[in-house]
Amino acid sequence: MLKYIRLFRLKTTLIYLFPFALALSVGVEEVANGIARPVSHSWITVLWVTVLFGYLAYFCGSFFSSTLNCYVDVPADRVHDGLYKDQELSRQPFVTGEMSTRETVLTFAITGAGCVVFSLLVNWRFAVFMLSAVLLLGILYSHPWFRFKEKPVLDVLTNATGAVLILYAGMAVVSADNPPFIPIIFGWFFSATLYIPSVANDAPFDEAAGYRTSGVVFGQRRLIHAMVPLTMIVVGIGIWGALSGSINWQYRLFCVLGAPAAIVATAAVMFTFHPPHIELNPLLLLVPLSCLLLFYIILSTYRVITV
């Protein structure tokens, strides 16, 4: 059982759950208030069951993607020291040999099928966005046939775009409308900026495994310095979003809190970069994000129950 817990990358799961919960909370509120259009068709007519299936689809897709990433990343994980990560990667089950071929096939089959089935039970629009996110963040990012993870720049673009697709999926659980433009571009640049430290920190181990990631090709220091102009863009869009009366208050709250968070994160990364490590505890960013995530989950749950 413990090996499956180690496969479930909690930090990554929570990070990508954030845009899902954010858009879902907005969708539930706007549909209830008649601002957004409800979905035209769903196999499930009980709202809380639809939302539950949406979460189950997300968790199945996240487990599938993280398992595929661990399965393919054995060469790099074998030499990874595990510092400043959510777990010691050299102890992940594919490195230690704890996963048999049968268990591996079953894990991919169950999580992949679960994501597809639960997504379709929500509605077809949700299925399109959720399965597209899993295709991008799981198969295209990790599978040896495509391996976007090993392509410079594309590794960062993939993760930022995947976060936006999950934002679309969260809205699509209950609404036929799409998220507005401001949170889409804010979320994209915010995700790209905060993904860079992970790529930079993994550069020595990726290079030892023969990968050509952004961190390997451009170097750790140059990649970290790229956070500065990206953060400036995040702050500019964040101010635009905070002052915009055309978007929901949940999105404005994200802009208000996300812009200074990007500044703090960038400053902390540059201050704690002592090659070959960014000596930054991931909890510094994960705890505030998790608190805001919990707020959006509680808010959307309350709305679902009281609608």
List the helices and strands and how they pair.
Blueprint: H1 2-7, H2 10-32, H3 47-72, H4 74-79, H5 93-96, H6 101-122, H7 124-142, H8 154-172, H9 181-208, H10 214-218, H11 220-225, H12 227-243, H13 249-271, E1 273-274, E2 277-278, H14 283-306
Antiparallel strand pairs: 1-2
- Tally the beta strands: 2
| Spatial order of the strands forming the largest sheet | 1-2
Strand content: under 5%
What is the arithmetic mean of pLDDT? 91
Rounded to the nearest angstrom, the distance between the terminal CA atoms is: 38 Å
Number of helices: 14
- Low-confidence segments: none
- Tally the structural domains: 1
- Helical residue percent? over 70%
User: SSE order, as H and E?
Assistant: HHHHHHHHHHHHHEEH
Shape: globular
Structural class: mainly alpha
Q: Radius of gyration from the CA trace?
A: 19 Å
Describe the sheet with the most strands.
Answer: 2 strands, antiparallel
Short précis:
It is built from 14 helices and 2 strands; from the N terminus they run αααααααααααααββα.
Q: Could you characterize the architecture of this molecule?
A:
The termini are far apart. This protein has helices at 2-7, 10-32, 47-72, 74-79, 93-96, 101-122, 124-142, 154-172, 181-208, 214-218, 220-225, 227-243, 249-271, 283-306; strands at residues 273-274, 277-278. The protein is globular. By secondary structure, the chain is an all-alpha fold. Helix 2 (10-32) runs antiparallel to helix 3 (47-72) and helix 7 (124-142) runs antiparallel to helix 8. The chain has one domain. The model has no long low-confidence stretch (mean pLDDT 91). It has a two-stranded antiparallel sheet with strand order 1-2. It contains 14 helices and 2 strands, in the order αααααααααααααββα. Strand 1 and strand 2 (277-278) form a beta hairpin. The longest helix has 28 residues, at 181-208.
